[in-house]
Design goal:
The protein is α/β, with parallel strands linked by helices. The protein has helices spanning 11-22, 40-51, 110-125, 147-160, 162-165, 182-191, 222-234, and strands spanning 2-6, 26-33, 56-61, 129-131, 172-174, 206-208, 211-216. The strands form 2 sheets. A 5-stranded parallel sheet has the order 3-2-1-4-5, with helices on both faces. Strands 6-7 form a two-stranded antiparallel sheet. The model is unreliable at 89-99 (pLDDT under 50).
């Protein structure tokens, strides 16, 4: 049994890969060098895949900086110390409302682009299951991290592919973290033996001391705040070794 798993190098995608393996899937990991603000997460994706024993790991390169429109793919400043990033509660998942402010770290159509690549590879491999590590609770307000989005993409996948239209296979988009808070995700990954020291979350890493080759998390972007809150509520220390990441 095989599955294509989107692996960014982040905490959520690493946990998702560990879950897929625990469920008995042979994981084909897919990572993207898309012109993001830094390449540290690509190192993390490689380390996570190696630590999980994933032998099939594909890196695809394209440049979303040519499109821009996000603090992660252009020179827009990354927001810091946003209390909004920490207000989402497990009992009150966000709804799509016109009043919801979507932060500038949203990358236009990113999950649609990533899932399209995953769908293409899955069709070639004849693999029906595609895993993605999104969740609809502890997230930053991205519209492509909601259950209704994944249901719509799954429907599209089964309308648009030769293998599905011919009735040979039905694609399933699997988001096992979709209803979990960050603390629950961390506890689940820890129970599976996942080494979170190999993951990366920060949107805007800072040079470590005077050596610009080494970076540490900024500690104040949305992703850093949500990660810290998750480990704190899980009652576990964050094991990230902040000295091993280089551009």
């Amino acid at each position: 049994m095989k599955a294509v798993v989107l692996l960014s190098g982040g905490l959520d995608s690493a946990t998702t890969a560990a879950i897929a393996i625990a469920e008995g899937y042979e994981v084909h990991a897919l990572s993207f060098d898309y012109g993001q603000r830094h390449r540290i997460e690509l190192q993390s994706a490689k380390m996570v895949a190696e630590s999980l024993g994933i032998n099939k790991h594909l890196f695809i390169k394209f440049d979303l900086r040519d499109i821009g429109g996000s603090a992660l793919t252009s020179d827009i400043e990354v927001p810091k110390n946003r209390t909004e990033a920490l207000t989402l509660q497990p009992s009150n998942p966000p709804a799509l409302e016109s009043s919801v402010e979507i932060p500038v770290t949203y990358v236009p159509a990113r999950n649609t682009i990533f899932l399209s690549f995953a769908l293409s590879w899955a069709e070639v491999l004849e693999v029906p299951h595609i895993f993605i590590g999104a969740n609809a609770i502890d997230y930053s307000g991205y519209p492509d991290c909601r259950p209704e989005y994944f249901a719509a993409f799954e429907a599209m996948a089964n309308l648009s592919t030769k293998i599905s239209v011919e009735g040979k296979m039905h694609f399933k988009i699997k988001a096992p973290l979709i209803s979990l808070a960050k603390a629950e995700i961390i506890k689940k990954g820890s129970a599976l033996g996942l080494d979170y020291a190999k993951t990366w979350s920060c949107y805007d890493p800072l040079p470590r001391f005077s050596d610009s080759l080494y970076y540490i998390p900024c500690g104040s972007c949305d992703s850093c705040l949500i990660r810290a809150k998750g480990f704190r509520e899980a009652g576990l220390p964050d094991p990230l070794d902040r000295s091993i990441y280089r551009e």
